[in-house]
Amino acid sequence: MDLDHPCFAGALLSVVETQAGNAGDGAALAHGTHVASIIFGQPASPVAGIAPRCSGLIVPIFSARDSGGLGCSQLDLARAIMLSLEHGAHIINISGGQLTPSGEPDLLLASAIETCARRNVLIVAAAGNDGCACLHVPAAAPSVLAVGAMDAEGMPLESSNWGLAYRDKGILAPGMDVLGAAPGGGTVRRSGTSFATPFVSGLAGVLAGLQLARGRPPDPHAIRAALLKHALPCVPGTSDDCRKMLAGRLNIADTIKAITGGDTMTEDIDMPNLRDASSWTHSETIPAPAAPAGTASYAVLSSRASHEGIRPSGEDNAAVTVQTEPPVGAGQITPSDCGCGCGGKGKNGGGDDHKGGCSCGGGEAKKPQLVYALGQLGYDFGSEARHDSLVQTMHGTANNPTLPDQWLAHLDTDPEDATAVIWTLNLDATPIYAVQPVGAYADVGYKKLREALAAQQSNAPDRADLISVPGVIGGSTRLQSGQVVPIIVPAIRGIYSWATEPLVKQFLAARPEGADAQDVFDRFSAGLTNYLDRVYYDLRNLGLTGEERALNYSATNAVQVANVIEATSKDKLDLDRIAVKKSPVCRPDSECYDVEISFFQPVDTRVSNRIYRFTVDVSDVVPVTVGTVRSWHRRV
Prior knowledge:
Blueprint: E1 13-16, H1 27-40, E2 55-61, E3 72-73, H2 74-86, E4 91-94, E5 96-100, H3 107-118, E6 122-126, E7 135-137, E8 145-150, H4 164-167, E9 170-174, E10 178-181, E11 187-190, H5 193-213, H6 220-229, H7 252-260, E12 297-303, E13 332-335, E14 363-365, E15 370-380, H8 384-393, H9 404-413, E16 422-427, E17 430-435, H10 442-455, E18 466-478, E19 484-490, E20 496-498, H11 500-507, H12 515-538, H13 546-556, H14 558-570, E21 574-582, E22 592-600, E23 609-617, E24 624-634
Parallel strand pairs: 1-2, 1-14, 2-12, 4-6, 4-12, 6-8, 8-9, 17-19
Antiparallel strand pairs: 3-13, 5-7, 5-13, 10-11, 15-16, 15-18, 16-17, 18-19, 18-20, 21-22, 22-23, 23-24
Helix pairs in contact: 1-5, 2-3, 5-7, 6-7, 11-12, 12-14
């Protein structure tokens, strides 16, 4: 976004660095600037925003591209959501989405959304502009508040999506000819659910500010419930199709009463222009409430280039230009404005900018981003030219660098070529990071990566399935497929590789004689394997937030877990739940999380669960356990 726009002068905004490219002066910059101004535009500026005194995080996910169009993968969106959580967001505005048949997000995005719900962080997402009973990710996810677009009369735009998943969890907000900031200092009016979404996000922030003003902590999901409960429903006969109205229109007055216990918002907040959403007209500027300074925090997710043939959401889908670059990874999230080239009559293929048609158009957070990720190791050439140069460098007939055994054999004689490829950390064959050792001991780091890759081969005597990579994010790189991934600069002392089965055997002596002893032994082996596999494959994550780093370290530090499993095996208990939460007690200048493992008695589920808790300090690049394991019983 254009932070130099006059409407942001005095706004409490900071930028969270991501792997998204520079938006330049293209559509990504225009989209992000417009969306952010609807929330954060300052009073008496060219665009007066909904919540100008709330603090905001700008988290780029799109960037401009020469061929036009915007998009990002669901993986990139999941990463941006987790970064938003790590930086303290209460409300996350996502003015974009991916059209999907089921509305089901990919695994890592689903995990990020579930984490937001568990931590009481509200995601507000655009319903999309396909003009059909069709669903967008992430708007269709159960805990997300979906937003459709309505006109000045409170009727849904023809382009605004509807569908069963939106019926009870979607709301209509003004989305036609919405005034917003344009890069370079001007203003523009645009239509689409992208621009309805920040109306709802902004109001949610103001309501969270009201909660704080009354001495209560922000409760974004209670705000979500109030917005949906008090939405003005469709009255049969007043609309051609009540399904298009979702749960109803935004009802500011009754939602305020619900949050404040009947008080009016004007007692606490100066908001002379705020009225019921149905009376907003678009010849005026956007209403401008002002929440108490420094209250609820937002993350506004905006802008990175699409690498797939996914078209942007448009009012006229038949006229949308389809991108033809090769597919990469997961599906693509695109902005939920009306899109460039949507077949209208106005500029850039949109409608008349003054008649509701389609149109196109702070300080930074510098603290190093820690990461502790688990996955499988791989490598990438970055380009065909690099691949071909390595083929010519390799000796003899074994000169295919895409085959790991031939590549590793080459590195045995030419270890310096380890720097010629991009080493990747993968989840389910999808690269999530690049790994790049640097500094005086970089050669040691590359040696560890070579050893880990060799151990992953099927004929390896000490086969390894997984590797742990702690470190800090140090920029990004583009893979040969076009996918952009963050670079981990690893802490070499924390790189380990292993496989579950031999790791479990390491903790166990030979299987004993006698039925009872063998039963305990088998239960111990199965229990430890179950725990490790749960973390590796069921609870897999990006290792970005403190709780993710603590969880991943708990599995890497298997000695501590093994002691817990051994104790529960003797009592014939089974693993129930693994939970991570912020520890209320921690050392000064540290960040600690409690990993709680719950076990139940399968023979008699009425018996209280046994809880084991150990604390992990994640403030350093390589986490460390603090104190001793605690245990108690709890009824569930």
